[in-house]
Amino acid sequence: MNGTKDSVLEVKKLSISIKLDEGLLTPVRGVDLQLYRNETLGLVGESGCGKSLLCKAVIGINDKKFKSEGSVHLVDENGKAKELLGLQFGGKEIRSIRGKSISMIFQEPMSSFSPLFTVGHQISENVRLHVTRDKQEARRMTIKMMQKVGIANAEQRYKQYPHEFSGGMLQRSLIAMALICQPHILIADEPTTALDVTIQAQILQMLKNLQKDVGMSIIYITHDLGTVAQICDRVAVMYLGKIIEIATVDEIFKNPLHPYTEGLIHSVHKIGGKTERLFSIEGFVPLAMNLDNRCGFYDRCTRRNKECLTLPEPHLVQTSEGHSVACYKYTNNSKPELLAKEVG
Ligand SMILES: Nc1ncnc2c1ncn2[C@@H]1O[C@H](COP(=O)(O)OP(=O)(O)OP(=O)(O)O)[C@@H](O)[C@H]1O
Ligand SMILES: [Mg+2]
């Protein structure tokens, strides 16, 4: 991070819900999140906690059957402020933002490409939309980017269709598509899971270089805490559709406050560690439907006590500069002046 703290993206009280036959599912429940210029913010949490839905809502691509409430405030590359939530689905305005102001590397490379067009054509679309209308120039830029993400024989590959690519190759193509216009904000949803470790390291280095060159801000979704330690400045921990802890990377690893964060960190197996049995957090994330108004982690919490049951679900509370947590232990014990800074 460059030290400045101006935010490029501010998510406020964002909730996402969907009506199902069984009832109202609310996979994202009142998220507040800020992304600062030039920083890499890690977003971690168990499968199904709402990471992808949250990020897709930011760029307006969740299925229409999801209802989003709250606000998503963007400060674009020209310093212009824009409210993104409520922009017309697939409309001109959101399309002019996607790919340049905010780009996303999706979790599922297979379903992110149309089978009807060549991979090269699909990557170059962003260039033609945001950079140049010259097809030859767009093609040249695309081939260069494909080479940069490790696609050998890129000139040939440019002309091939998605079904002719392996999963790893498509993942690289998706990364090329997201980065080709040097986005102001990049949302990377588990971008390197399908790649082998050497190419993973190259891609991470590439993101870091690009960040330095063009001043990109990154939201990096991952299950891999090693990658978080390596590339992130801050980490937001999500559980059952809420941010339950947020702090700098150093602080999260040295001083995790929420029992869930503590559990996540203990779950990482250390090479050479003498543990005979791997640690895991007992139980499962509950379904975000018909929730009562108490702590969503209660049933799995190692520190729970009867008092927790008498209190409404805890909000994020700042416990020290840049460190906030949503747990009764801190809402009750925090100093009054910190409690006054309750977030959300
Ligand atoms: N189209 C859908 N219809 C119904 N429920 C959905 C749909 N898409 C997602 N969900 C539910 O919303 C919740 C959050 O999903 P999301 O994809 O955001 O999780 P995630 O945190 O990204 O998980 P993972 O780490 O596995 O990618 C999950 O419980 C999921 O089952
Ligand atoms: Mg996901």
Key attributes of the depicted protein:
alpha/beta, eight-stranded mixed sheet, four-stranded antiparallel sheet, 12 strands, globular, binds adenosine-5'-triphosphate, binds magnesium ion
What does this protein look like?
It is a single chain. With 344 residues, the chain is α/β, with parallel strands linked by helices. Helix content is 33%, strand content 23%. The protein has helices spanning 51-58, 92-97, 119-130, 135-148, 154-158, 167-179, 197-214, 225-231, 249-254, 259-266, 306-310, 328-333, 336-339, and strands at residues 7-20, 23-36, 40-44, 66-75, 81-83, 102-105, 185-189, 217-221, 234-239, 242-248, 317-320, 323-325. The strands form two sheets. Strands 6-7-8-3-9-10-12-11 form an eight-stranded mixed β-sheet, sandwiched between helices. The two termini are 25 Å apart. 40% of the residues are buried. Residues 333-344 have low confidence and may be disordered. The structure holds adenosine-5'-triphosphate (ATP) and magnesium ion (MG). Adenosine-5'-triphosphate is lined by residues 18, 25, 27, 47-53, 63, 107.
The main pleated sheet reads as: 8 strands, mixed
Distance between the termini: 25 Å
* Fraction of residues in H or I helices: 25-40%
Shape, per Cα inertia axes: globular
Give the topology string: H per helix, E per strand. Answer: EEEHEEHEHHHHEHEHEEHHHEEHH
Short description:
This protein is α/β, with parallel strands linked by helices and 344 residues long.
Write the layout of secondary structure elements.
Elements: E1 7-20, E2 23-36, E3 40-44, H1 51-58, E4 66-75, E5 81-83, H2 92-97, E6 102-105, H3 119-130, H4 135-148, H5 154-158, H6 167-179, E7 185-189, H7 197-214, E8 217-221, H8 225-231, E9 234-239, E10 242-248, H9 249-254, H10 259-266, H11 306-310, E11 317-320, E12 323-325, H12 328-333, H13 336-339
Parallel strand pairs: 3-8, 3-9, 6-7, 7-8
Antiparallel strand pairs: 1-2, 1-4, 4-5, 9-10, 10-12, 11-12
Helix pairs in contact: 3-4, 3-6, 4-6
Bound molecules: adenosine-5'-triphosphate and magnesium ion.
